[in-house]
Design goal:
30% of the residues lie in helices and 35% in strands. The chain is an alpha+beta fold. It has a seven-stranded mixed beta sheet with strand order 1-2-3-4-5-7-6, sandwiched between helices. The protein has a domain of 115 residues: 3-Layer(aba) Sandwich (Aminopeptidase), CATH 3.40.630.30. It has four helices and seven strands, in the order βααβββαβαββ. It is globular, with a radius of gyration of 15 Å.
Length: 166
């Protein structure tokens, strides 16, 4: 069966949490250290409903199972950052490297191209060669590295900041 990309809905939030919370507990790719609950994910989802003309949440399904999600959101809170956005993609563990992230990003970037956004940013915990390759495939360039900016699982982690001009 083919991979299907659709806008995310509240019904998708438990599956999104399942994918995301695995990374919270088992990896360093997110700096969250506590799994997200249903209420927190619902509050997070509201940004897409309130700003549908700028921010998108997309989900990928395969055989009626949610296998990944991608979204863009505020880069920073201050008003001068309003033309910049952070992008993120997560693929269900065990399914990375099969093109799911690329298909999600292809659709997400197409939607973003219709917005007034000017720059996109992605923060990638190092090492993560697969994510770096994915972002470079879509024209992101290294803007810099934040050395040992996060502490998780009893060690410091650096983050590569990649950017893309729209």
């Amino acid at each position: 069966m083919a991979l299907i990309i659709n806008p995310g809905t509240p019904a998708d939030l438990p599956a999104i949490n399942s994918i995301y919370n695995h990374y919270v507990k088992e990896s360093n790719v997110t700096f969250d250290i506590e799994p997200w609950g249903e209420q927190k994910r619902l509050e997070w989802f509201e940004q897409f409903e309130a700003n549908a003309d700028i921010y998108s949440l997309l989900v990928a399904t395969l055989d009626d199972q949610l296998v990944g999600f991608a979204y863009n959101s505020k880069y920073k809170e201050k008003a001068a950052y309003a033309t910049s956005s952070e992008v993120t993609v997560y693929v269900k563990t065990g399914l990375q490297g099969q093109g799911i992230g690329a298909q999600l990003y292809r659709e997400l970037l197409a939607r973003i191209s219709l917005t007034p956004l000017h720059r996109l940013y992605a923060g990638i915990t190092l090492p993560n060669d697969g994510s770096i390759r994915l972002h470079k495939k879509f024209g992101f360039k290294l803007a810099g590295t934040l050395r040992e900016v996060g502490y998780k699982h009893s060690q410091f982690h650096s983050v590569a900041l990649l950017e893309k001009f729209i």
